[in-house]
Amino acid sequence: MTLALKTDITGYRHNNVRRVISYALTSSAAQANQRFKYYETLCRQFEQEFGLTSTEFMQKFDAGELGDAQEYFDWYAAKRGLDIWRERREILSGVSV
Question: What is the pTM of this model?
């Protein structure tokens, strides 16, 4: 994949643009890592409490085998958050300026 940045229309020096873009990406990567760790911690707590991995839980939840307890919906949200922030973290970790 190729990303392009049109710096000629901004009037800013290339080094300044590079620094700003690098800072933005670094900040986003740090945020993604922090949120990933938060959801990872939540999932581990649910896994310990219920004796299932989050993957096993999702399979059972999606199959309708677990019921409608609020804790299951909380775990579902935590697992979805974990998956979303894992993907963002992985994508951002591969970007360089």
Answer: 0.84
Identify residue 89 by its one-letter amino acid code.
R
Nearest-angstrom CA–CA distance, 91 and 97: 14
- Between 53 and 6, residue with greater pLDDT: 53
- What distance in Å separates the CA atoms of residue 46 and residue 35, rounded to the nearest whole number? 17
User: 31-79 pLDDT, tens per residue?
Assistant: 999 999 999 999 999 999 999 999 999 999 999 999 999 999 999 999 9
Q: CA 97: distance to chain centroid? A: 21
- Asked if 79 contacts 40 with a C-beta cutoff of 8 angstroms, the reply is no
Q: Are 82 and 35 in contact (CB under 8 A)?
A: no
Per domain, the residue ranges of the chain are: 35-93
Quote the CA–CA distance of 2 and 15 in Å, as a whole number. 20
Return d(Cα 67, Cα 95) in angstroms, integer: 41
